[in-house]
Write a structure and sequence with these properties.
259 residues, three-stranded parallel beta sheet, globular
Length: 259
């Protein structure tokens, strides 16, 4: 009923029953990554008024025992939720520090959430404010968040879902991988998210119609740089020969293409 509430006067709405619930099912392997396609299709025309998120006061902390148990496993979902659209994205306090929400806070007890009913402070935030060392998970969040606003293709570019083009790709698992393009003028970025716990060696097919959609021409050889790691990646060597890409378990690549 998103449209009804927007028409009633809301500026933004949590995309809870769409993208968040779908990503949670994907994380827990109770839905395939291809289900993500339906999320952006259902909010066509209002996508820029949907607030994307992975944590809030009502949901389990990603690192809690009630969800994934490890903050690093959030990375593929973070890449999708943050980078697939021009929608605003919310970071819940302590999320980027790996907060687990596993304290016995009083009224709330141990429920994998951060209490909004008790007088309480969050341990990871408390230690961070004391000047503790920056955890590695925060560095990953910083990279992704800064890319989302510094790269024109991600901050204001158009979106192209590649899932349909890889449905029958034997070197790609549409159940556990999700990929898309973002583009603005001559900038084109390929985002690949791996929701499998295992490292995957995959090939991402990019049809010619996708390049045409962004109005770019491609050469015989296409390469790129993973903006997260700095790794140089060969995408396509000959006209129709795409190369395999190694992507870590619960990982993501944000590849800026050189066309």
């Amino acid at each position: 009923r998103y449209r009804e509430f927007l028409n009633a006067g809301f500026d933004y709405l949590y995309d809870k029953s769409g993208l968040y619930d779908t990503l949670r099912m994907v994380f827990e392997d109770s839905a395939p990554c291809s289900a993500i396609t339906g999320c952006w299709q259902r909010v066509e025309g209002i996508g820029n008024r949907m607030l994307n998120f992975l944590e809030n006061h009502d949901e389990h902390r990603i690192a809690s025992d009630f969800f994934l148990g490890d903050p690093y496993r959030a990375i593929p979902g973070l890449a999708v939720s943050l980078l697939m659209s021009n929608s605003p994205f919310m970071i819940y306090f302590g999320q980027e520090l790996g907060e687990r929400g596993m304290d016995c806070e009083g009224f709330s007890q141990i429920d994998g959430k951060t209490s909004i009913f008790d007088y309480w402070s969050v341990g990871t935030v408390r230690e961070w404010l004391k000047g503790g060392n920056e955890p590695e998970i925060r560095k990953l969040y910083k990279k992704l968040l800064n890319l989302s606003v510094s790269e024109p293709a991600l901050s204001q570019g158009r979106f192209y879902d590649l899932q349909y083009a890889n449905a029958f790709n034997t070197d790609y698992n549409p159940g556990r991988q999700y990929s898309f393009l973002r583009g603005e003028e001559s900038d084109l970025i390929l985002v690949v998210a791996n929701f499998s716990e295992d490292d995957q060696f995959i090939r991402v097919n990019i049809p010619q119609v996708a390049y045409s959609y962004f109005g770019v021409s491609v050469s015989e050889c296409i390469s790129g740089i993973d903006l997260l790691s700095g790794e140089k990646i060969l995408i396509r060597e000959l006209s129709d020969e795409y190369k395999k890409i190694l992507i870590g378990g619960f990982g993501a690549k944000v590849i800026k293409l050189s066309l």
